[in-house]
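Record 1 of the preview.
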Amino acid sequence: MFEKILVANRGEIAVRIIRACKELNIRTVAVYSEADANSMHVQLADEAICIGGPPASESYLRIDRIISAAEITDVDAIHPGYGFLAENTHFAEVCDSCNIRFIGPSPRAMQSLDDKAISRALAKKVGVPTPPGSESTVEKEQDALAVAKRIGYPVMIKAVAGGGGRGMRVAHNDISLVKGYHTARSEAEKAFGNSGVYIEKYIENPHHIEIQVLGDNKGHIIHLGERDCSIQRRNQKVVEEAPSPLLEHKFRKLRDKIGKAAVKIAEAARYTSAGTVEFIVDNLGNYYFLEFNKRIQVEHPVTEEVTGIDLVRYQIMLAMGEPLRHSQSDIQIKGHAIECRINAEDPFDDFRPSPGRIEMYFQPGGRGVRVDTHAYAGYTIPSMYDSMIGKLIATGNDRREAMDRMNRALSEYMITGIKSNVSFQQAIMQDPNFRRGVYSTSFIEQLLGGARRELIDEKA
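->
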C-alpha cells in the first residue's frame, strides 16, 4: 500500500486524484506554480510545494523540480493526471530510476505506444484497421505533398504527441496542406516539445468513439465499454456520453468488434493501468483506429457512472501491483451518462478564453448530478493554462433522462465575473438532432452555422 502520493498536475484532475487518495487513506502532496498558489488542489492536499513560475515550462513540465519535490516529501508514487507529463516516457523512466512508482503504464508499454505514428503501426500489425496515411512522421513538406497525392484530399495533419486538438489541421488542397503542415508542427512544438506530425486520410463527418481499457501487470486486460466523443469544436471534445447512441441504435454489432480491437492493441503493447483507445466510425459502420491515450481521460467520469467502477482508484491499485478485480463478463453498462465541459470562454466571441476572477459561483446538484471542479467564488482562473472550469456529469436510467437532467443542471449553474460556455452547452442539450442522437464531429460547426443564419435573418 502506498503511504504518500505526489500529484503532478493541477486543476480539477488534481482534485479528483486527491479525493481518490483520501478514500484509500493515502497522504497527498500537491505541486503548484506561482499562479496556482490559491488553487483548490493546493488546499486539499496534505502537503504542497511550489515548483516554479506560472508558465508550464517553468513548473508542471519540469521533471527535475517534480522529482525533487517527490524526494523531499518522501513519496511512494507520482500520479501525472492528464496532459503535461502524463504520457512522457522519459518522466516514467526517471520515476523508475528514482524508485518512485509512476501511476500509469510501464515505460515499456509507453515506448510501444510512444506516439500516434508508432501506435498506428502497432494497430496495423494486429489487424486493426487504420485510416490510409503516412507510415511514420513526415519530416518535409514535399513528403507531406507526396502522401496527400497518394491517398487523396482531404487529409488530416496530426501531431504525433499530445492531444486536445492541438497540432491538428485539415487540408483540402496543396496550398492548405503546406500552410497547415508548418502551422501544425509549430503548434505541436510549443505545446508538447515535439514537432513531429504525420498525415492520414480525413474521414468527413465521422463519429468519434473511444474504448476505456484497464490492464494489470499479470497480462490481464479488459474494456469498460465505449464513450461517444463526437461533439467537438476544433478537434477538442465538448460533450461526451456513454453508451454511444450510434452503437446503441444503428451499429449495435460494432460494439463488440471495437471493444475486442481495443483489447487486442492493449495486449500487443502489454499495457498496464487505465488507457483509452480511440476510433472513428463512418456512416457505413467502418471503423478505424486513431490513437492510444496512455493516461486517464478528461471524460473518464461517464464510464465511471455507467459501470460503477472508480477508474482513478483502480489506477492506484494497479500501480501497487494488485491484479484486476473484474473479468470482462463482470462489466455491465447500466443507464446513461453525459458530461459537459464547462470552460471559461465566450461563446459569443468565437469562444475567446475568459480568464479572471470568479465573483459568484454556484454549482448544480441533486440526484444524478456530479461536478468535478477546482473552481470556487473568489478563485482567479489563470490565463496560461487550459480554460476548463470543471466537468458537469448527469446520469439517468436512459439517455432521455440523462439529457433532461443535464439541461436542468445547466440551468442551475451560476458563474459570474467571467464568461462561460454554460449557455452554449444548454443549446446543445436542447438541439433536436442531438436529442435524437443524430450527430457527428461536424455537429458544432452545423449548429453554429444555423445560429449565424438565424442572426442574419433577424437583422434582415
